[in-house]
Hints:
The chain has helices at 22-34, 84-105, 127-141, 155-161, 163-166, 188-202, 250-257, 280-283, 337-341, 344-356, 358-368, 372-382, 439-450, 452-455, 458-467, 478-492, and strands at residues 15-18, 40-43, 115-125, 150-152, 175-186, 205-208, 212-218, 224-230, 233-239, 242-244, 265-277, 289-291, 305-311, 314-324, 392-395, 399-406, 409-413, 416-420, 426-431. By secondary structure, the protein is α+β, with helices and mostly antiparallel strands. Flavin-adenine dinucleotide binds next to helix 1 and strand 7.
Amino acid sequence: MYVPDINRSELRYEAVLIGGGIMSSTLAVLLHELEPEARLLIVERLDAPALESSAAVNNAGTGHAANCELNYTPLQGDGTVNILKALEINKAFEQSLEFWASLTEKGKINPQKFLNVLPQISIVWGEPDVSYLRKRYQELNALPAFADMEWSTDFGELAEWMPLVMEGRAFGQQIAATRTLRGTDIDFGSLTKAYLQSLEKTGALELKLSTEVIDLQRDDKRSWKIELKDEYGISEVYSPFVFLGAGGGSLTLLQKSEIPEASQYAGFPVSGQWLVCSDSELTEKHNAKVYGKAKVGAPPMSVPHLDSRWIDGERSLLFGPFAGFTTKFLKEGSGMDLFRSINKANFAPMMQVGMNNFDLVKYLFAQLRLDDDERMKSLKEFLPRANQKDWTLSVAGQRVQIIKRTNQGGVLQMGTEVVTSADGSLAALLGASPGASTAVTIMLEVLQRCWADKMSSDGWIKRLRALLPSFGKDFNDEVLLIETRKRSNSLLNLM
Ligand SMILES: Cc1cc2nc3c(=O)[nH]c(=O)nc-3n(C[C@H](O)[C@H](O)[C@H](O)COP(=O)(O)OP(=O)(O)OC[C@H]3O[C@@H](n4cnc5c(N)ncnc54)[C@H](O)[C@@H]3O)c2cc1C
């Protein structure tokens, strides 16, 4: 029997990152900036990076900064608006901008290849929602981070902000919107590729494509043995640290790792569809991301929005998403993914979530029954003059929402969650939202939890401060915010 010599240096890496999407590539860049000598390996099962959720056509490309997404500022039972999540996401996005500004200054990435600046708008209709939006605006606008948010109920002004959305709308309809000019559309697929190209040039990163991780085991106290499958057969690599950045596939790998923490989790896949328009007459007339309010029971990722997109230099409009259901965890996954993930530990929490989220189940069934006419009806709430011939249906990326076992039973979580082994040798990223926009902050959390000694070492602190001058500082400090934005504004002004 062949016994690999694990001391052979080409089989050993300082870190093995599974999945070639935005998360692994962000972590790889951070690790390289902090530890330039480290040998890194990214393993990707498809024949190119960023073909799953990180592909531009598979996500909405919104630079989530909580400017326009109403699901980050829920109305509470006492009638107040909770803005805590919005503050957290805004801060995380500033950190992403700061990171890109630093890499741009170093000549490692070119923002013109992945970033466009455009207004981000929230829009609502009818008295209860207008009153909610006003409260949200008042709360946020009082803070330095949202001081440039504008409010309007004036038909003429709203028509200037979003002509297509206002065209054909009944004058006198109660309508309100907020606008933030400093918004972004991001091609996360191009960004992922730019990160990987910059790393490959350094020789620090090896990228294995068309290679699937089929198993991983803790082989002794120091190493993970990671089993790979490609067209030539099965092989192994070794590393003291593994990151499961496999998107929807992370839960499956987490379960394979058999760390005790894995038993707390189950997954619930939600697929999506967009209506897409590439008619240049229409795309030129709409220059914004316009987010509405989710229907009752809708999961946060189903907040309807009409977006200007730039993908590979081509401009388009995107509306949706419409939710769907498949049992796959990845777009290119297997219909057995969901069933294979069910085990003794997570079956009961899954059932509890099903019973406690009846609105969500009802919503998903209703979405599954939608036909073309009904999808157009939803679009017409945003674009009253929309014409079916201008729009085509396109399948979006797959998300796996987390179901977590807690003392209160199974809970459905809509955000992302970093799961780490007790010894810090493995980290996994589960969940989907706000996702790619906040990858830098999420990966810093991975480093904080798994590379804690290094993170507090003088060398890493110095490099982190050079890369992210605001790192570890209080973003509520107005002076710091202004200073940080000055730097990232120079990035945005490049557009
Ligand atoms: C419909 C939709 C809309 C979204 N809109 C936005 C948005 O507007 N803004 C935003 O910031 N975020 C958005 N997101 C979220 C964002 O797309 C994700 O958070 C992000 O792309 C996740 O990146 P990732 O690297 O974790 O996963 P992915 O990009 O899915 O990459 C995971 C990779 O792992 C590979 N893989 C899986 N299993 C294995 C294995 N066993 N071995 C080797 N490779 C493996 C896969 O092939 C894949 O390439 C959206 C997501 C969806 C689905």
